[in-house]
Design goal:
This protein is of the alpha/beta class and 310 residues long. It contains 15 helices and nine strands. The longest helix is centred in the last third of the chain and has 20 residues.
């Protein structure tokens, strides 16, 4: 699908005038490739962005794309850099001999949001939400959508990233066994095959993904839904984001800058394969049974499968 076939609806209106009902009505009857964005008129040109998604859903690639769009438009801003926390984290990681997860790790404004409380994900440091909103142009969170609704509605552009849960769980298992991740997050198991042998851990990861995505589905009317499978390989959702930032004419630059080969070379310890369907190499019949029991219906609802026969 090309960029010309993508329609983006900007739904505006004063509070309590029926915008939520209208959004629900449209989302029910319009085709999947039509995206809804609820946004206050005075905020349309500011283009601050919130990206939300379960871990290992392709969040880093989405961040690279959006941040590059903002830099091209001269509106990119990092709270961590402005506040000086970036340098502090860099010193602490160096002192503890922990490698950052990826190249821009110390500038990414990744936060855990719990109501009116925001905590920097890298260390348990609470920060003022007003200062964060004022200083950051791009906020990244893995917090559940239902936990961030009030915060999210203060940001004009809100993306939720979805990836096939089987690929998410597979990627998470491999990621958790990397040395720098184990140091940072306290994981103990060193080999992915050992994690796969622990069905209790596997089940926990599946439930985590399912609950996060179900939370999004409850509040999908306030987000633009981005699919990993349509974002990578410069697919239609990649084109959509360029269009939102009026950068369609820069497509060649973005494609040459954000190739998988370049990103992998820059971040060898964070990016593994970025493939669709790699879970098939690792799931046994028992893993499939567990996934179907917990989230098989969700895969069907998201159109990753037509039925349980996989």
């Amino acid at each position: 699908m090309g960029c010309e076939s993508i329609k983006v609806f900007f739904l505006t209106g004063l509070p309590k005038t029926g915008t939520t009902w209208c959004a629900n009505f449209l989302s029910h009857f319009l085709e999947r490739e039509v995206f809804l964005l609820m946004i206050r008129e005075e905020e349309i040109m500011s283009f601050k962005v919130l990206q939300c998604g379960y871990p290992r859903s392709g969040n880093y690639f989405l961040w690279r794309l959006i941040s590059l769009c903002q830099k091209k438009n001269g509106i990119y801003s990092s709270f961590l850099i402005k506040s000086g926390l970036s340098k502090m984290f860099e010193y602490l990681f160096d002192f503890k001999k922990i490698e950052p997860l990826f190249k821009e790790f110390f500038e990414v404004d990744e936060v855990i949001i719990e109501g009116k409380k925001s905590v920097v994900a890298k260390l348990p440091i609470e920060i003022d939400q007003e200062l964060l909103l004022h200083s950051s142009s791009l906020i990244w969170t893995h917090s559940s959508p239902r936990e961030i609704v009030d915060f999210a509605l203060r940001i004009p552009l809100r993306f939720y990233l979805i990836r096939d849960g089987r690929d998410v769980v597979n990627s998470f298992i491999h990621h958790s066994c990397r040395e720098n991740v184990r140091k940072l997050c306290g994981y103990q198991i060193k080999e992915p095959i050992q994690v796969y042998e622990r069905f209790d851990i596997f089940e926990k990861y599946v439930r985590g993904w399912a609950e996060h995505v179900k939370s999004f589905l409850e509040w999908k009317q306030i987000f633009i839904e981005i699919r990993f499978e349509k974002l990578v390989n410069f697919g239609p959702h990649f084109q959509l984001i360029l269009k939102l930032f009026s950068l369609e004419k820069e497509e060649k630059f973005f494609k040459s800058t954000l190739t998988f080969e370049k990103l992998k070379k820059e971040n060898p310890e964070h990016i593994r394969k970025g493939q669709v369907g790699n879970w098939r190499e690792f799931f046994t019949e028992r893993h499939k049974e567990i996934f179907k029991e917990i989230a098989g219906d969700l895969l069907i609802r998201l159109s990753y499968e037509k039925d349980f026969n996989w």
